[in-house]
Amino acid sequence: MNPFVLGVDLDGVCGDFTGAFKQVVAEELGVLPESLPTNRSWGFDEWGLNPALLDDLMRTAAVKHRMLARMEPIAGAVEALWRLSDAGVWIRIVTHRLYVNWSHAVVVADTVAWLDEVQIPYRDICFLGAKPDVACDCYIDDAPHNVKALRAAGNEVICFGQPYNTDIAQPRMDNWVEVEDYVLNLAADGGHQVQIQLPGFPVHVDRLASVQRPDPG
């Protein structure tokens, strides 16, 4: 078998990291969330955070607020990943997240719990820092330095559009519909074989219907 392996980042690609972190920062600094612009740079310069404060708030978000278990999924990510998985694409989660020392157990547990809660399908998961090549046919990431490094190593990389990566060259996509079409075309062009559906669901179950999240309203 020759599955097409898609390396999928989480924060800023599948989960709304900016939205979740904004709530934490607003609470910790005693400011209004509206004062923290969503259209921000990679280093959160627009929020007035120096590197030391940013590191401290990242740690607080992960450990005190358990943010990584609570963030909202990015629109269309769950549904598109299920369709890709059912089409035979091997979903490999490739995420940094171990950026807070002495809290790895919390971060790993909350990451897996979040994946289960929002029902993102995946076959395996890698927690990495610099994100070296982990044998994927294509990667999707939002971090400019990760995209550049992976491409420099000869990898196919989709840049998932965010305000802090507008200078990254194509392929750059702003929604999961575009990503899904692009990945399916790559898999077909590469002659990859279709894998069995993700285990754990009877064949007759409508998996897409089972992952629809209720309307908060």
TrEMBL record:
One of its GO terms (molecular function) is 5'-nucleotidase activity. Coiled coil: none annotated. It holds the Pfam family NT5C. InterPro entries: 5'(3')-deoxyribonucleotidase, HAD-like_sf, HAD_sf. The active site is at D9 (nucleophile), D11 (proton donor). GO terms for biological process: deoxyribonucleotide catabolic process. It comes from the Bacteria. Belongs to the 5'(3')-deoxyribonucleotidase family. This is 5'-nucleotidase.
